[in-house]
């Protein structure tokens, strides 16, 4: 019991410390998260029928908001996207600039902002099932929608083709569903384990969560 209480206190202290960090220290952590995203982008499996490889970078995106909080998670992904578009070769395959995957990369920003907002705002969001639902929404809506739209435009302008909706789904969605669900489950498990179940910055449901069972 004492060990569990100590662990809970440590999680609270870490997130409170994260919330109260100075701007330069938050900026350093944010740059580190962008670099981690770039590193995980190199864990890739190319697929012969699509320019979109399977990568590990979305795992970092799903955790960016949890670890950095609202605003800074999104800023970290904006740094990743902005520097990569500007020429820093840390996109998948050590590439940079605009390409077929640019829409997904743009989607990383609202996804991290969304998850960071809920993590900092609601204690209840830090349960496994709440976080899993939020992460699946962020992944399949906030990342996939701009990814699909951009890929369709890229294929039309660069490749000179206009794929049907079914073909586009086969290139940009269907092959990745199982892997993305696994990454979301893993990220939600980590988020559930590391986030405190007490308020560290005036959450709106402070004082209510004690009567909930948070699995």
What does this 3D model show about the protein?
- The chain is mainly alpha-helical and 215 residues long.
- It has one domain: Arp2/3 complex 21 kDa subunit ARPC3, CATH 1.10.1760.
- The chain is 66% helix and 2% strand.
- It contains 8 helices and 2 strands, in the order H-H-E-E-H-H-H-H-H-H.
- Strands 1-2 form a two-stranded antiparallel sheet.
- A hairpin with an 8-residue loop joins strand 1 (44-45) and strand 2.
- Helix 4 (72-86) packs antiparallel against helix 5 (102-121) and helix 5 (102-121) packs antiparallel against helix 6.
- The chain is elongated, with a radius of gyration of 18 Å.
- 37% of the residues are buried.
Features:
215 residues; single chain; mainly alpha; 66% helix; Arp2/3 complex 21 kDa subunit ARPC3; elongated; 2 strands
Quick synopsis:
This protein has helices spanning 2-20, 23-40, 57-68, 72-86, 102-121, 128-159, 165-172, 177-194; strands at residues 44-45, 54-55. The chain is mainly alpha-helical. It is elongated, with a radius of gyration of 18 Å.
Q: How do the strands of the widest beta sheet line up side by side?
A: 1-2
Main sheet: strands, sense, barrel: 2 strands, antiparallel
SSE ordering:
HHEEHHHHHH
Reported by name, the CATH topology is Arp2/3 complex 21 kDa subunit ARPC3
Number of helices: 8
Using the 3D structure, state the CATH architecture.
Orthogonal Bundle
By helix and strand content, what is the structural category? mainly alpha
């Amino acid at each position: 019991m004492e060990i569990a209480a100590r662990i809970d206190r440590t999680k609270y202290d870490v997130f409170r410390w994260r919330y109260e960090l100075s701007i330069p220290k938050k900026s350093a952590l944010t740059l580190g998260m962008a670099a981690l995203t770039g590193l995980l982008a190199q864990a890739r499996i190319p697929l012969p029928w699509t320019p979109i490889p399977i990568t590990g970078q979305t795992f970092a995106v799903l955790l960016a908001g949890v670890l950095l909080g609202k605003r800074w998670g999104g800023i970290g992904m904006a740094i990743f996207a902005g520097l990569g578009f500007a020429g820093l070769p840390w996109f998948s395959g050590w590439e940079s600039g605009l390409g077929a995957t640019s829409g997904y990369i743009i989607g990383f920003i609202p996804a991290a902002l969304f998850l960071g907002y809920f993590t900092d705002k609601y204690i209840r969001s830090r349960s496994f099932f709440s976080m899993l639902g939020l992460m699946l929404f962020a992944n399949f809506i906030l990342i996939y929608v701009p990814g699909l739209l951009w890929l369709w435009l890229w294929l039309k302008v660069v490749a000179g083709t206009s794929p049907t909706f079914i073909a586009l789904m086969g290139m940009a969605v269907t092959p990745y569903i199982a892997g993305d669900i696994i990454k979301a489950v893993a990220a939600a498990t980590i988020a559930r384990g590391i986030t405190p179940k007490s308020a560290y910055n005036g959450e709106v449901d402070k004082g209510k969560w004690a009567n909930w069972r948070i699995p």
